[in-house]
Amino acid sequence: MKQALIVIDIQESFRRRPYFRAEELPAFLANVQSLIDRSRECGIPVVQVFHREPGDDPANPFTAASGFVRTMPGLALRPDAVFHKQVHSAMFATDAGGTLEQWLRARGIDELLVTGIRTEQCCETTTRHASDLGFTVRYVTDATLTFPMRTRSGREVSAPSWCSISASRASCRAPRPWRDGCRQRTPGA
Predict the structure, then answer these.
(1) pLDDT in tens, 68-82
(2) Over 70: is that where the pLDDT of 21 sits?
(3) Per-domain residue ranges for the chain?
């Protein structure tokens, strides 16, 4: 199987949200960086996906006008491709040439490593969507991050369990799967 690492929504926009918490961010970024570095060593393409909302309101941290739709500091990414999305699933993300799904299929990629911010929203939605499209998905749980949310009444609730996705073709991995060694190599790498 040919793999790609999908890095979802690791962007400055989240620091501007009231629910953002920085406590787990250093460990999360270290895990993601390790995954990116290992992917590079193995010749696995790294794809960056940003959530970008339409409009030009600089007060909305998810619009391009805000200047916050950019990689969080401390992460050296050097992506092979960059896509932008307006919905939860990164599979709908686009660049100048088409969708993320089209990009992956054109390169014969059939297995995705999913990492990013908002475990229970964009990461899980992408995982389910990619699985429904026939991709094998490895959901890297210790390289995803989320934040507790508040209900309208003010009660704090934690993110739903990420293990709910394990019934599909996706596999949840609490241990770091990138320690298992390279599963593919780029010729000449």
Answers:
(1) 999 999 899 999 999
(2) yes
(3) 3-180
